[in-house]
Amino acid sequence: MRNIRLFWGLLAGLTIIRLCLAASVPLTPDEAYYWVWSRNLQPGYLDHPFMVALWIRIGTWVAGDTTVGVRLLGPLSVLPGSWALYQAARRLLPGCPWPQSGLSAALLLNATLMLGLGAATMTPDTPLLFFITLFLYTLSRAIDPELTSRAALPWWIGSGLLLGLAFDSKYTAVLIGLGLGGAVLTTKRLRQQPGPWLALPGLCLATSPVIVWNAMHQWASFLRQGGRTGDWHPARALQFLGELLGGQIGLATPLVFILFAAGLWACLKRNRLLAWLALVPTVVFVTHAFGDRVQPNWPAVIYPVLALAALEAGWRIRWAVTSGLVITMIVCIQAMFSPLHLVPHRDPVLRLTGGWDEFSRKVAMQAKAQGATALAAEDYGLASRLAFTQNILPVTGTDQRWHLFHLPAVKAAKTVMVEEQRHGVEAQEAATFCRKVRGQAIRCYIVHGPDFVAGVQLPGRS
């Protein structure tokens, strides 16, 4: 009982820290982009499904159009997600003593930089991890050998629904579904039950909004994500594989990554279900890396499974959890207070988030003084960040992706175009503005205008 109280006390403390981080660090351009989505809720978007937009909409309804409003549900979701993983260990790890196994699995997941820092931001991975942990809990109940086939049915249906909600968060959830399918087909006891097959209607129901939206928009999102396989460079396989390995060591933190790898190997020998759930996505990502870059956050979908699998190795987790939490705290402190005055170009947080407020207001005020009625930007991140940061002028997005929104069109607005300055490129009759931190420029932008630009007006902060 004492360990359980300490565990929940630690999680409560981590939640408070994540909320502080969410409130103090400015939004990244991608987060601002998802905030634009939340102003125009629909069943799907070009880049991802709708769940991240829905979560932001709920958060901003509670806390307003602020950084903490955009990210609110991220830190809060970790508590029920950790509880679900804690409970899932009871049946998914039958050879490990519970509740110690549940505490260890939840601690390992919380010790990763992926969750530790990622839960304080709002990206599609945030709801994805939440629904995957809930899915693992309902799946653990569904496979409970003490339940009859009839008693397990609601848990199988719930597993299908939750896996569908994970898919509504990010398409990589389909890899967990394929892993589950492999486990069912190769396990006689599961294959002969009606439950796994009756989970399919729940899965289809939950994913139907995204599928219908794609069908109504020429399968735009599916083609965009599936089209990544067309850019294939096998000659760079070693580079891509090295980036994949390095990215996972960094996001899992080194000692936790070693435990994840050892646990996956152990599951291949004695835990068929977890082996299937983890191995299918792993094989897909490794195979993809033989010809194209795998973004470091893509394997996040496997992390809850690997947190459970790691315990099958039978190794102690104390130093892995401690080192992971220490690394995460160092990154959080640097993100909030910047005690190490790194050159902004070498600080990944400052590079994405620094200097937007002053830059946006300066650009908007000067544009308005020159008679402009709107700002325009083609780059989605720049347009979204300008829309979120200032409310002096409306922002017009000129990229084709904006036409998949039902936002008001601006066809005759007197606008100025804002675009990132490229090295060696100078524009005539244009002003240059820079995002700065501590007096040092991070990125510089060229502002053309005023001119007439056709586009789609993005919502500003209310």
From TrEMBL:
Keywords: Cell membrane, Glycosyltransferase, Membrane, Transferase, Transmembrane, Transmembrane helix. Signal peptide: none annotated. One of its GO terms (molecular function) is pentosyltransferase activity. Its main location: membrane. GO terms for cellular component: plasma membrane. It is found in: Cell membrane. Pfam families: PMT_2. It is a multi-pass membrane protein. Residues 47-213 form the Glycosyltransferase RgtA/B/C/D-like domain. PANTHER family: MANNOSYLTRANSFERASE YKCB-RELATED, MEMBRANE PROTEIN. This is Glycosyl transferase. It comes from Gluconobacter albidus.
